[in-house]
Amino acid sequence: MTILVDQNTRVICQGITGRAGTHYSSVMLEYGTRVVGGVRPGKGGSHHLNLPVFDTVATAMTETGANASMVFVPPDRAANAMIEAIEAEMPLVVALTERVPVRDMMRVRDALKHGSTILVGPNSQGILAPGVCKIGVMATGNARRGNVGILSRSASLTSEVIAQLSDAGLGQSTTVGIGGDAIHGLSMRACFELFLADPDTHGVIAIGEIGGTDEEELAEIIAAAKPKIPVVALIVGQYAPAERRMGHAGAIAGNAGADAKSKIRALSEAGVIIAESPHLVGETMHRALTVAA
Q1: CA gap 176, 112 in Å, rounded
Q2: What ranges do the domains of the chain cover?
Q3: Which CATH code is given to the segment(s) 141-292?
Q4: Whole-prediction pTM
Q5: Which of 54, 72, 87, 226 would disulfide-bridge 21, Cβ 3.0–4.6 Å?
Q6: Helices 214-225 and 260-269, packing angle to 10 deg
Q7: pLDDT at 272 over 50
Q8: Residue 250 pLDDT > 90
């Protein structure tokens, strides 16, 4: 099994006629993802990439049976696009847009409280179930089908870890980029709970960084659930200076508990295996799965 997506996922692209929307929709179609249409206000009734284009998400859902949307809308309009999909009761929304204003994301977060939509992102690399479904911008050359779930705040580190796992003979069940912004949808904790409910995920890798409380909340659920599958974590930013943003909008250690050492301590105390270096994540999971077997 997979989480969030499967072979029945039908995707529309909000912003399909833009450069990024066009490119990545094409790549996803080539991968085998069932992209069934797009949304661009004012262009309803036209076609793009041989797919129908609609003025609204609600119309696209009615006409295509779409159950997932990806957002490739510029930052100043991305929140409105997410909210439109939430209000249309789209089950899954994956927001790839970077630099969405924090104030706008507060509106999105409020909209999520009144619906059942699962939002992944923004500033996410997307979701990948190798050989099944890809929604996002990630490379797929090193990915292979398997039983290790990955939840991550970092796109580049996710690619590195996937390559390490595949080299070690370990495939991935699903890879989820929750996004690197301070305010985002699906949390590490909620994503981990989905992996726990998946019988085909035999181990989970969590890739975290400084800033926010996602890793601490993940530690809490792991300590409470005492999962039987191994959990490996990589937390980067141990030498990052305080009060300085490091790459991602949410990667800033500006308050107690937001630094890397505090996150590592919380996860370690919860029973998580800490990878000592980014290049050792695959090896660490391989060893953990061997011991668990």
Answers
A1: 19
A2: 10-120, 141-292
A3: 3.40.50.261
A4: 0.94
A5: 72
A6: 10
A7: yes
A8: no
If you ran DSSP here, which 8-state letter would residue 211 be given?
Answer: S
Q: Residue 236: helix, strand or coil by DSSP? A: strand
248 catalytic, yes or no?
A: yes
pLDDT digits (tens, 9 = 90+) for 195-243: 999 999 999 999 999 888 999 999 999 999 999 999 999 999 787 666 5
Cα-based torsion angle of the residue sequence 18, 23, 28, 32 in order, rounded to the nearest 10 degrees: 120
Question: Which CATH fold would you assign to the domain 10-120?
Answer: Rossmann fold (3.40.50)
- Return d(Cα 211, Cα 248) in angstroms, integer: 9
Residue 188 in tokens: 């590490």
Crossing angle for the helix pair 102-112 and 75-87, nearest 10 degrees? 0
For 140-154, the pLDDT digits (tens) are 999 999 999 999 999
Task: Report the largest interatomic distance among the alpha carbons of the chain, rounded to a whole angstrom.
Answer: 57
Q: Which listed residue (47, 248, 279, 286) is catalytic? A: 248
Alpha carbons 38 and 15: distance in angstroms, whole number: 7
Distance CA 129, CA 145 (A): 7
Query: How many other β-carbons are positioned within 10 Å of the β-carbon of residue 254?
Result: 12
Structure tokens at 192: 């981990």
pLDDT, average across residues 20-35: 98
Distance CA 257, CA 266 (A): 9
Who contacts 7 (Cβ-Cβ below 8 Å, separation ≥6)? Answer: 132, 133
